[in-house]
Amino acid sequence: EIRSEELRQPRCRYGSFLPYPYARRTTYLTIMPIKVPRDMVANVRLTLPLGFAFETEQLLVEQYYGRNPQGVTDIWPGEFPVIEDDVVARWDDPMEFRTFSANGLRAKYGFKIAVRLPWWPQTNNKFFVEFGFSEPVLDEGEPGPRPLAFFLDGPMQLRALRGTDVDYWTGLAAYSQTVRILVTTATILLTGEGLLLRAGEGSQTLKCSCPDPSLLSGLSCAVVRGKLYGDLMVELVVSTTLVAGEYAFPLQCENPEVVVSQMNWTFGSYEDPTEFPQVSIIDTEATVPGFSAKYPLATFARWTGYEATGFNPRPLRPCGTILAFRLHPRNSSVSASRARIRAPEGTRFNLECLDDLVTDAGLVLGAGVETSRVFSGVPSVYTCRGHAHRAYLTWLEALQPLVQYAFRIWAINPAVQPTDNIWTLEVDDQASEVVAAAPVQRFGDVLFSVAVPSLRLPGSLIEGSGGNRMTLTFTPTVPARSMLLVASPGYSFGAGGAGGCTGMRLVGRALPGTQGSFLVVPTLRGCEASLRNITFTMDILTGYAYELSLDIVTPVDNATAGVFTVFSTARGGLLGDESWAAAPALLPVMSRFAVERVSGVATSLTP
After folding, report:
1. Are the beta carbons of 442 and 314 closer than 8 angstroms?
2. 495-513, pLDDT tens digit by residue?
3. How far apart are CA 95 and CA 79, in angstroms?
4. Distance CA 119, CA 53 (A)
5. In which region does residue 428 sit, left (phi positive, over 0), alpha (psi from -120 to 50) or beta (all else)?
6. Dihedral sign, Cα of residue 304, residue 307, residue 311, residue 313
7. What angle do CA 498, 500, 506 make, to 5 degrees?
8. Which residues have CB under 8 Å from 325's CB, separation 6+?
9. Under a CB-based contact definition with an 8 Å cutoff, are residues 155 and 48 in contact?
10. Helix, strand or coil for residue 133?
C-alpha cells in the first residue's frame, strides 16, 4: 500500500547536471521541504531512478551529506544511511518527525546526499521515498506499515556538455604539440552562440592557435586572453546552426617554458561566448583535467618488441609494448609516484589494466630472452586505470632517479594507423618527448568484388558453370613471402588442396614515386585451397598496389554475409599485414538464361 496522507510533494535540487560517465564528477541531491502530516517515528528509505547511483567514496560522502540544507527548519534526525546496491539509501533506525517546530511554525525537513547522475534520463525516472518501509510507524494515527510514501520526478534533461577531454601529447616544458579538445553538445547552437574553451589558472604563458579553417565548418575561431587573469581562452562562434553532437578541435600549442601546475580546462556553450563572463549558459559547463608543464625525463624509449613479448603490430590485435625510461634527480620530494602513458590514438587500454603490466625484469623482454640491455623492472604497480589510449599508473613508493627502468604494457592496437603515431610518458614532475610507435601493419586500399554479384544455385562447383570470379585489391606495408585469404561464410575456393587455386592471377602496379618496374607479376611458388581458405606463396613487395583475381563460388543465400580477411607472413616468418573487406550483397540467381534468337539488321559504319 502506498499512501500520501495529503503530503505536499517536496522538490529535488541538484548541485549540477553533469553526467558522471562523462564528467567523472559527483554531484549532490537535495530533497526538501518534507512536511509530515502528523507526528511520527519511522525509518526511511530512498530509492534512486534507473541509471543513478549513490557515491560511496568516503571523502565525498562526508563532504556532501547534509542534514540541514538551506531552507529547512528542523535537522534531519538520521546520520548517514546504509547504502544498498548503490541505488537504495536506508535509515534503518526509527527517527522522530514532528508536524510543528519548537517555535510553533510548520516543521520542514530535508537532506542532501552525494549521487552520480546517468548520461541521460532513463525510462523510470522517479525517486521513491518511503516512511516506515519495514516496521509499523509509531504514532497516534492508523497503525500499519508505510503510511507515508511519495514519488519525485527526476530531471527530464541533463543539459550538459559531455565527452569532454583534453588529449595532449606531453607536458614537457616549452614543447610544441597538438592538443585535441573533445566535446559533445546536448543542445543545438544557433548563429551567434557558441563554445568557449578556457584553459584556466596556469595558462597565462600557454600559447595555442586555432585549428585549420577546414576543420571548423560553420564555426569561427579566435584565441583570446581572459580580461582579469590573462588565462588562455578559445572562442568558437557559430556562423550557421550547429547541431548537437560530438566535435573535436585540434589546437597547435606551445607549452609554457617554465614548470607550472596542472591547468584544469572548462568548456561551456553560451549565447554569446565573446561577451564572457557576462553571458547566459546554454549547456552546463564541464571542467576536465588539463596538463602541467614538467621537467624533462632523462631518457625515454620504446624498445623493439620480441615474439616472446607478444608484440603484434596488426590492427585491433593485443600487443605488448616495452617502454624504458630514466628519471632525473627531482627538485621536490615524492612519497608515491604517478605516471601517465599516452599511446597512439585509437589504441585501447583496459579500464582495469593492472593485469596488463609486466614489471618483473626477467619477464619484460620475455621469459628466456637473452639481452645485453641492463635495466631494472619498475616496482609493483598499485593501480592501473585505462582511458581510451591513455593509462594512469600509481605506486605506493617513489621511483628512484638515475635508474634505468623498463616495463611492458598490453593494449589493443588502433584499427588504422593514426596521424600522430607516437608514445609519450610522464612520471611525477617529469615528461618525455614523443617517440615513434610501431607502424600498424594493415593492408591499404582493400576492396573485394565478384564478377557477377549473384548467389549461386545449390550444387554448383567451382569448376562448373556455377562458378564465379573474384577480385581483391590491396597495398602491402611490409614485404611478404606468403598470404592467406579467408572468405566469408558461404563462399568457397574449392577443396583441391595443392591442386586448387584455379584461374589465379596476381599483378602489382607501382605506386607514385616507386622506383623500378611499373608492373610486377610475382612468381607463384605454391598454392593450396581448402573451402573458405586459400594460401599462396610468392614474393609481395611494398610500393605496389596489387590486384588478385581468382575463381570462387558464391553463397546460396545472403544470410551469412560477412567479411573477407587477408593475412600476410613477412620475410623471416614474422607477422605481416592484416586487413578485411566487406562481402558484397548478392542478388538472387536466375534459374535459366539463354539467347534463343537474335533479330535485327546490321548497320554498316563508315568512318
Report:
1. yes
2. 765 555 767 888 888 888 7
3. 10
4. 12
5. left
6. positive
7. 100
8. 297, 298, 299, 300, 301, 405, 406, 425, 427, 432
9. no
10. coil
**Residues linked to residue 109 through DSSP beta bridges, in sequence order:** 34
Predicted confidence (pLDDT) per residue in 558-585, tens digit = 666 688 999 999 988 889 999 998 888 8
Choose among 88, 142, 140, 113: nearest CA to 31.
Answer: 113
Q: What is the pLDDT of residue 1?
A: 41
Contact between 401 and 385 under an 8 Å Cβ cutoff? The reply is no
Give, for 21, the enclosing helix (H) or strand (E): helix 20-23
Q: Tell me the C-alpha distance between 529 and 558, whole Å.
A: 23
- Give the H/E segment covering residue 580: strand 575-582
What torsion, rounded to 10 degrees, do the Cα atoms 426, 430, 436, 441 define?
A: -10
**Whole-angstrom distance, CA of residue 82 vs CA of residue 469:** 69
pTM greater than 0.85 (yes/no) = no
- DSSP 8-class letter at 44: E
- C-beta of residue 116 within 8 angstroms of C-beta of residue 17: no
Query: Which one-letter amino acid corresponds to residue 90?
Result: R
> Based on C-alpha coordinates, what's the Rg of the chain?
33
Rounded to whole angstroms, the Cα distance separating 493 from 55 reads 58
CA dihedral of 273, 278, 283, 285, whole degrees rounded to 10: 90
Q: Quick one: pLDDT band at residue 398, thresholds 50, 70, 90?
A: very high
Residue 320: pLDDT above 70? yes
Please identify which residue in the block is written with the cell numbers 542478388: 587
CA atoms within 13 A on the CB side of 26: 18
- On the 0-12 / 13-18 / 19+ scale of CB atoms within 10 A, 559 is exposed
| Residue-level pLDDT at 591 | 62
Burial of 195 (0-12, 13-18, 19+ CB in 10 A): buried
> Are the C-beta atoms of 493 and 486 separated by less than 8 Å?
no
Q: What is the pLDDT of residues 250-286, one digit of tens each?
A: 999 999 998 888 889 999 999 999 999 888 888 878 8
Backbone dihedral angles phi then psi of residue 322, each to the nearest 5 degrees: -100, 125
pLDDT at 523 over 90: no
CA 510/CA 206 separation, integer angstroms: 46
The answer to whether the bond into 512 is cis (omega within 30° of 0) is: no
Contact 569, 576 (CB under 8 A): yes
319-339: average pLDDT: 93
Nearest-angstrom CA–CA distance, 347 and 592? 52
The overall average pLDDT reported for the chain is 86
The CA distance from 1 to 24, in Å, is: 38
Question: Does 463 have pLDDT greater than 70?
Answer: no
pLDDT at 606 over 70: no
CA distances from 105 to 36, 75, 77, 102, 560 (A): 13, 14, 18, 7, 74
| Per-residue cell: 29 | 541531491
Q: Give the CA dihedral 43, 48, 53, 55, nearest 10 degrees.
A: -40
Three-state secondary-structure class, residue 422: strand
| Residues 321/423, Cβ–Cβ less than 8 Å | yes
**DSSP line for 122-152:** -SS-EEEEEESSSSB-BSSS--SB--EEEEE
Residues 165 and 120: their CA atoms lie apart, in Å, by 19
Q: CA 337 to CA 56: how far, in whole Å?
A: 25
CA distance 284 to 506: 58
